[in-house]
Amino acid sequence: MTVDPGFEAFYSANYNRFVVQLFAVTGSMHDAEDAVQEAFARASTRWERLRDYDAPEAWVRRVAFNLALNELRRARRFVAALARMGPPADVPALAADDVDLVAGLGRLPVRHRQVLVLHHLADLPVEQVARELGIPVGTAKSRLRRAREALARELAGRGEVGRAKR
Amino acid sequence: MPSDDLHQRLTGLQDRLAPLLDAPAADAIVRRGRRRRARRGAALATAAILLVAALVVAGRGGWPQVDPGPQPIAPAPPPSVAPATTVPPSTMPEEPKTTSREPPTTRTAPTTTRPPAPSRLVLGVGGLGPATFGQTPDQVVAALRAVLGPPDEQRSWDQRQGQLFGFCPGGNHRFARWGKLYALFADGDTGQGPAGRQHFFAWYAEAAQAGGKRLQTAEGVAVGDTTAKVRTVYGDRALIWAEEGGLPAGFRVPPQGRRLFGWLTDHRPQGRVTTLAAGSVCGE
Predict the structure, then answer these.
(1) For chain A, how many structural domains are there in total?
(2) Contact call for B246 and A28, based on CB within 8 A
């Protein structure tokens, strides 16, 4: 099969970054990979148009985020999660600090994870974060501030909260 | 861009993790996109054929037993009323849903008396009230219709995409929905019914009410109840876990055998039940 070289380069340059960003939001490497692959699959069928966009990666990221967050919000993948009862086997080994970081993110509301990931991982300025999320810049700023505070609290308070037996 | 500690840790996650990932080959992604487009094309074609068929049938005089007016389907009557009706088993239409084809003419033939519908539906580890795992979709929908009224939605979903409910056994899946109560059907080997025949294999509830009835377990637990109540009601039989790695807090009762599952906003006493479920779980 012939793959458009432009799409292949675009895909290679962004796939891993997007998966990590989605992983930080969903906490599930499997869900992150699935959402990003689906978003790129959709992009591949529209590449003729997308390649002329100023930032086709924004389109793919938005589709991937929507796919992943819809599932999160609707909690309809709970059965899969129940079957798994733990991190999927194909997650690369993470350093202890990263495990804490991802767990801390996972305890934040999704809207907080989104702004943190877009601003810090995707390296987007607040104005672009606001555009991608469809919210006013002021809202994005205050949300980012609250998210940072909440994550800092989570990371500082790790281990203080008792865990139920598993 | 910020350069503080938090920023360093977040960007560090990307720097450390991204190189460890193996991206699928680009042509595999392109093939996935083409398959998706082909499936959508086929679905649209099927919908068009169904629409044309419906128009043709309508042009020949309409469906034989459908009332001519745009009469809405009435919900199940309240418990205090003894409706003199016989409600036929429903069918599971293909997408798009076709509830308007229900044969309301049967409602005008008062020949039998149905007992008053109960005020609640028991969310059981073996099924939903009168509907038990393993039954056919028609049996389940008919049984639940008598309690909850007609379903709000009945349709199939493409489990190959892992959408809605994740990947489940078998090749053909569908669900019936009353508000936020879902009954799931599959034709594969789910452990709840015979492979090759579509059967009821799981349910889940995201609300405490549907069709005007309270949805609760046999022990009285419903969506919205506190984690403290779950602990009180189920005691040591409930295995409760905290949110971790993006998976929400939850519980299951009992730890072995037929299980009731639940999701919680928090594993601590003030947490609330957001979802209840039972049956065969689907895997990735």
Answers:
(1) 2
(2) yes
